[in-house]
Write a structure and sequence with these properties.
The protein is built from 7 helices and 9 strands, in the order βαβαβαββαββαβαβα. With about 270 residues, it is of the alpha/beta class. The protein has a domain of about 180 residues: Rossmann fold, CATH 3.40.50.150. A 9-stranded mixed beta sheet has the order 1-9-8-2-3-5-4-6-7.
Length: about 270
């Protein structure tokens, strides 16, 4: 279980093949975001070539039973879906739209309020999918009181709604995922980086696509939240980041939590 200050391409090349159960990452979007060491202004061809290079390593280290979850913005969502499915051999099991209000304000365009989550696998029949971790009450159960309804509920939709002005991560009478965006005033806010995914959202991904003791990899550790949640949920973890500053902060965050510690935010599936 570790975090390395290293380019993920170099780091993953050192890892044995078929050694990772789950990859969850939120890479640079190539939109000019200010990082302390990374240039987020690559040319189109350079960015796609770079994504293909680290994507090949993800494919190499991932087990047949594994899954790869990728968060990406509008600019390259379509291109990366094609890249990973047509060129790198992944199957896209779901293209999830992660919607939230209080998004990025725009003056001369519609305000940005969503991120794309791609759920990729290499071998769909073998891929881990712990459906019991994410089943929710159905409309047949809660609205229509239909005795024919499956007592175990149903699987959620593929649109996840994030509303910072609401308290809910998941309402018991709905089947859409609700997770608050990590705003500046939230307890889980790391503070040293602006890009941060909510613990509850990461927890649902990790629970459904891995088991306790499995290896979770984040090639672009950033805030360290993926590794933090993996540790809390009893998974092994490994991450890379080229920023010494970020890695130092991640190590400090990891040192403050233990297996079994509660997640920040309202529990999903109450």
């Amino acid at each position: 279980m570790s975090i390395h200050c290293e380019d993920c391409l170099k780091g993953m090349r050192k890892m044995p093949g078929l050694s990772v159960d789950l990859v969850v990452t939120d890479p640079p979007f190539n939109i000019g975001y200010h990082y302390d060491t990374y240039d987020d202004n690559k040319s189109y061809k350079e960015y796609i070539k770079w994504c293909e290079a680290w994507g090949e390593q993800v494919s190499r280290v991932l087990k047949p039973t594994g899954s790869f979850w990728l968060a990406i913005g509008d600019e390259y969502a379509a291109e990366l879906k094609v890249l990973f499915t047509r060129h790198l051999g992944f199957t896209c099991r779901s293209w999830i739209v992660w919607y939230y209000t209080f998004g990025v304000n725009c003056k001369r365009n519609f305000s940005r309020s969503h991120t794309h989550l791609f759920y990729f696998v290499l071998d769909p029949p073998k891929a881990i999918f712990n459906e019991h971790e994410i089943r929710v009450p159905s409309a047949r159960q809660l609205v229509y009181k239909d005795r024919r309804a499956n007592a175990k509920g149903r699987l959620p939709d593929n649109t996840w709604i994030l509303r910072p002005q609401e308290s809910g991560a998941f309402a018991p009478d709905e089947n859409t995922w609700h997770h608050p965006r990590v705003c500046g005033t939230f307890n889980e806010r790391a503070g040293f980086i602006g890009c941060q995914m909510p613990e509850q959202l990461l927890a649902r991904i990790i629970r459904v696509s891995s088991n306790e003791g499995d290896m979770v990899l984040d090639p672009f550790a950033g805030s360290g939240s993926t590794l933090l949640v993996a540790k809390k949920l009893g998974r092994r973890f490994q991450g890379f980041d080229i920023s010494e500053n970020y890695v130092d902060h991640i190590e400090r965050r990891l040192a403050t939590v233990a297996v079994g510690d509660p997640l920040e935010g309202k529990e999903v599936g109450d």
